[in-house]
Amino acid sequence: MDYIGFKCPVCDKNFHADDDVVVCPVCGTPHHRKCYEELGHCYNEDKHSEGYDFEKEENESDVPEGSVKCKNCGEINSEGTFYCSKCGTPLIDIPNNNFGQNQNQNNNQGSPFNNQGNPYGNNDNQQGNPFGNNQNGNPFGNNPNGMPFGGFNAVQFDPMGGVAPETEFEDGAKAGEVAKLVKQNTPYYMQVFNKIKTFNKSKFNFAGLLFGGGYLLYRKQYKLGGFITAIMIACYTFFTYGNYTVISQVLNDVVNTHTNMNPSDIYPMFMSAVEKLDTGDYLIVIFSFICLLIYYALHLVCGFIANRCYYKHCCKQVKKIKSQSSSETAADNELQTKGGVNTALAFSLIVVMLILNYAPVFLLR
Questions:
Q1: From CA 340, how far away is CA 219, in angstroms rounded?
Q2: At residue 113, what are phi and psi to the nearest 5 degrees?
């Protein structure tokens, strides 16, 4: 039996991996050797006559209803929590399959990409098939479900995405600590962060592409997200103004004047009409399109940088919180408080963009 996370009944301190543990031969109660020798007998000796069994009693211990006990440190966590709030250890057992074996068998300091960087785990196929053993034409190897990485359950229920909680990221931040800040969609980000740390390569973030700076704000990156969002709102505001004051009028004039023209002729005729505008209106049109280009370019940039920026943000936050906290418990509480996402701010930005889009219809009539 693994006693890590249990407490010595004499000193009331948790057992650790390197502790010298003495187990009572009668009831199985574990003690620190020093504590056992000082006490001179088993702590529960008076219960031996009653048939006391440590393992049985521990399994039926009074863990509060709706809670789960961490097997690593003994911390009591709310049921449904993916990882321990104190040490970051996964609280859900991972099925023994190909993907889970990657976490246990690799020697790459917690990287899920064992086999010299092969993300698919051990490759037993001598013909170079990256998916390992291939039987009956199944490209995913010996898997009755036909799922990559050893099955859906491994991916779905591993809260750390195959990354060990003790894996060190940037600035001395550990994966388990970073996971407390991430909270939502932890498996995805743990894999992405580990890839950045191990191979210095990130993944394209489609949420960053769709929402731009708003996604950074949603992930509580307020400085960078606020800066990018401010530029995007300014660009979109000016484009909306130019569109309703000049661009739409010019386009309507072109369509109404040339009712039978081909659709392919609209653009050249529109540009011809723009060139005939006075200087002020002409500059509004040109600058409006420049603002629109900047707006969409920032969306694209956010797609490329979102994951890497979030990685650096989380690591810096962990380092800052640990340096400013008086104890490990205080640091854990602060990580839980400052972690997660800001959903209210995300919805507020959506409302702002809707207002910017439709306000000119009412204001510029």
A1: 7
A2: -100, 80
Kindly provide the residue ranges of all beta strands, DSSP E only, lying in the chain, ordered along the sequence: 21-23, 30-32, 67-69, 76-78
Taking the C-alpha atoms of residue 54 and residue 60, their distance in angstroms, rounded to an integer, is: 10
Closest CA to 198 of 130, 123, 110: 110
Structure tokens, 318: 């962990």
Q: How far is residue 150 CA from its own chain's centroid? A: 22
Q: Which long-range contacts (CB under 8 A, 24 or more apart) does 222-229 make?
A: 224/309, 224/313, 228/298, 228/302, 229/349
Q: Tell me the C-alpha distance between 116 and 163, whole Å.
A: 16
Q: What is the mean pLDDT of residues 161-183?
A: 89
Q: Which residues pair with 69 in a beta bridge?
A: 76
Q: What is the pLDDT of residues 58-70, one digit of tens each?
A: 655 556 666 777 7
Q: Which amino acid is at 138?
A: N
CA distance 221 to 339: 11
* DSSP code per residue over 235-257: HHHHHHHHIIIIIHHHHHHHHHH
In whole angstroms, give the CA distance from residue 292 to residue 314: 31
Element (H, E) at 154: helix 152-157
Helices within the chain (DSSP H only)? 33-39, 54-59, 98-105, 114-117, 152-157, 175-182, 186-199, 206-211, 213-218, 222-242, 248-257, 266-275, 279-324, 328-338, 343-363
H or E segment to which residue 222 belongs: helix 222-242
Task: Produce one character per residue of 224-263: b if its CB has 16 or more CB atoms within 10 Å, e if not.
Answer: bbeebbebbbebbbbbbbbbbebbeebbeebeeeeeeeee
Determine the Cα–Cα distance for residues 107 and 136; give it in Å rounded to an integer.
31
For 252-286, write each residue's pLDDT tens digit. 888 788 777 777 777 788 888 888 889 999 999 99
| This prediction's pTM | 0.57
Alpha carbon distances (Å) from 229 to 99, 220, 222, 269: 39, 13, 10, 34
Chain-centroid distance of CA 172 in Å reads 18
Question: Three-state DSSP class for 12?
Answer: coil
Q: Which two tokens mark 324?
A: 């400013």
Task: Round to whole Å and give the CA distance between 135 and 4.
Answer: 41
Please determine, for residue 134, whether its predicted confidence score (pLDDT) is greater than 90.
no
Find the Cα–Cα–Cα–Cα dihedral 10, 13, 18, 24, rounded to 10°. Answer: 30
